[in-house]
Amino acid sequence: MRALVAAASLALAAAPRAVADTSDSSNWAGYAIHATGISFQEVTAQWRQPRARCVPGKPAYSAAWIGLGGFSETSAALEQIGTELDCGRAGRVLSSAWFELVPAPARTIRRHVSPGDLMRADVAMAGAQVTVGLSDQTRRWRFTKTLRAAEVDVSSAEWIVEAPSDCISAFSCQTLPLADFGSATFRFVHAVSTAGVSGSITNPAWGRTRIRLRPAGTRFGSLHGGAGGGATPRALRAGGSSFKVVYTRTPASVHRELRRVPGIRAS
Prior knowledge:
The protein is mostly beta strands. Helix content is 0%, strand content 47%.
């Protein structure tokens, strides 16, 4: 999707390979679970909206979300919901919430979210019917929406902090500068398979991949500017139901993806 000031995901633009326990991505940081022959019907988690460190003249973008699908390099769908924390050009912190059923564009949740708010999210599937939910437990509001998806992917479940992307065309997408979000901790991480198996990231019924966000070092022209940054997920805790993603400063860089991205719309 576009940065809305804003964006949260063109996750498919650089989804990591599913072959290793640890993988690098140009736009995702967190954990994904997956296994041959297993599909998922529900994913949940809780996190606090981070507090961005913004610099005037250097817009930057970040999103925290949970979702089903999108991990496979051949995936054309992803069902997700989360929050966004961006830095505007004037150095102002911009905080928002959204959901997205890729390949459809992202949609803003018109509720107020502030840094420090305690958020709880869930995505549930029933065939092609998707129910997404987000609660701000600090401000005491709850958003729920049930939709029918044009395409679905239930082959994985994810808990991710992302550097959003912006597409110039369906064939050319640019990963935007990652905002310095400090850290974000996912808690009460939980998934349920369509066979009814329930558990955390470390459930032996499925495999897991730890994903590090590491921007490419090569410089490319950028419409957005700003410093580059990466993010690293720390070790799993609380029986695989909790982990922290930490922002890591890197040399200024913007990674431009030049590949076909199924279902992604040009900005």
